[in-house]
Amino acid sequence: MNLFDVYSLFDVTPVKAQGCKVWDENGQEYLDLYGGHAVISVGHTHPKYVAALTDQLGKIGFYSNSVKNPLQVTLAEKLGKASGYEDYSLFLDNSGAESNENAIKLASFHTGKDRIVAFHKSFHGRTSGAVAVTDNPKIVSPFNANHKVSFCDLNDAVAVEKELLKGDVAGVIIEGIQGCGGINIPDTGFMKELESLCHKYGVCLILDEVQSGYGRTGKFFAHQWYGIKPDIITMGKGIANGFPCGGILISPKFEAVKGMLGTTFGGNYLAMAAAISVLDIIEEENMVQNAYEVGEYIKAGIAPSPRIKEVRGCGLMIGIEFNEEVAPIRKELLFNRHIFTGVAGKNMVRLLAPLCLTKAQADVFINAINDILK
Ligand SMILES: Cc1ncc(COP(=O)(O)O)c(C=O)c1O
């Protein structure tokens, strides 16, 4: 049997990883500035993380959500403290897309309405509703396209209000910082206006923090830079450092009804052990602050070049936009300098390094990119 061939693969086979380093099957070492697409938050194979998962696996690996699981409660308590959302509730699922799916469903249940407002250049995942609110027609099948969704330009509050005035909108979904769309940071003024428009029209504000959350930008959630409080916050990626896990934080204004949301695997023991250890490590090793400092250090270290259009981002969510296609630059970085990077569109190198990246490791990248561009 062949694999269903949907991924474009680099000819690299990682077999070992530690912190911000990865080794391939030939023993070649790489610096990981991609974090497996923003998933590796506390670094690869952190000893505490490995111990937590190993220990849990020897106790109980799985049961269902029909019995008590105190690890879920522990995670909720720690997450409430780490994020500043102690008055919100936590629903656990398995991925970013599923988190957005649950958020949209909850907004629709709560308001009794069925349309969602999303933004151009958004990415929210590939399941039915999540892909419908994603601004990429190439990955939206005719079935997905039947959802009621309206897209507005980022930062266009007038366009949003026009949609909300129609009276059928359940929720507005927006990324804390647009990731796949090219590291687009919404204006603070716009985000505050969006929050007040949602209050005014009784619409749920959903913040997708799947990529921009969990400390990546130097605050626990990127939206905390704008001083707003959404109704629902969606999470995934870095939440369990690579063990599949997702979740949503839900404002106290939502009433839980038995059976309203559910999942087989969400909140399982192994995911919880992983997620609890991630929060412990982030706190003990001050990784949110580190992400901010090292991210700003990288941005400042990239020398101006006529080939670079703009360097933007916050903390360790960085986009280097070029005036040319970046595929050859990324290949040079990967195969000759042995540095993993990500991409957004054709012209942007996207960095999503583990939150434990050191300045010395950042220097390796800064020197490489400046050397390539000189
Ligand atoms: C902002 C955002 N939301 C949702 C998702 C979907 O997450 P998952 O691939 O875990 O379903 C992603 C994935 O890249 C993302 O970047």
Which helices and strands appear, and what pairs or packs with what?
Blueprint: E1 14-18, E2 21-24, E3 29-32, H1 35-38, H2 47-57, H3 70-83, E4 89-93, H4 96-111, E5 115-119, H5 128-132, E6 148-152, H6 157-164, E7 169-175, H7 188-201, E8 204-208, E9 232-235, E10 246-250, H8 269-284, H9 287-301, E11 308-314, E12 317-322, H10 327-336, E13 339-340, E14 342-344, E15 348-351, H11 359-373
Parallel strand pairs: 3-13, 5-6, 5-7, 7-8, 8-9
Antiparallel strand pairs: 1-2, 2-3, 4-10, 9-10, 11-12, 12-15, 14-15
Helix pairs in contact: 2-8, 3-8, 6-7, 9-11
Bound molecules: pyridoxal-5'-phosphate (PLP).
Pyridoxal-5'-phosphate (PLP) binds at residues 95-97, 100, 123-125, 175, 179-180, 208, 210-211, 236.
Describe what this molecule looks like in 3D.
The protein has helices at residues 35-38, 47-57, 70-83, 96-111, 128-132, 157-164, 188-201, 269-284, 287-301, 327-336, 359-373; strands at 14-18, 21-24, 29-32, 89-93, 115-119, 148-152, 169-175, 204-208, 232-235, 246-250, 308-314, 317-322, 339-340, 342-344, 348-351. Strands 4-10-9-8-7-5-6 form a seven-stranded mixed beta sheet, sandwiched between helices. The protein has two domains: 14-46 and 286-373, Alpha-Beta Complex (Aspartate Aminotransferase, domain 1), CATH 3.90.1150; 48-284, 3-Layer(aba) Sandwich (Aspartate Aminotransferase, domain 2), CATH 3.40.640. It is globular and about 55 Å long. It is an alpha/beta fold and 374 residues long. The chain contains eleven helices and 15 strands. It starts with 13 loop residues before the first strand and ends with a helix. The longest helix is centred in the first third of the chain and has 16 residues, at 96-111. The model has no long low-confidence stretch (mean pLDDT 98). Helix content is 34%, strand content 19%. Bound molecules: pyridoxal-5'-phosphate (PLP). Residues 95-97, 100, 123-125, 175, 179-180, 208, 210-211, 236 line the site of pyridoxal-5'-phosphate.
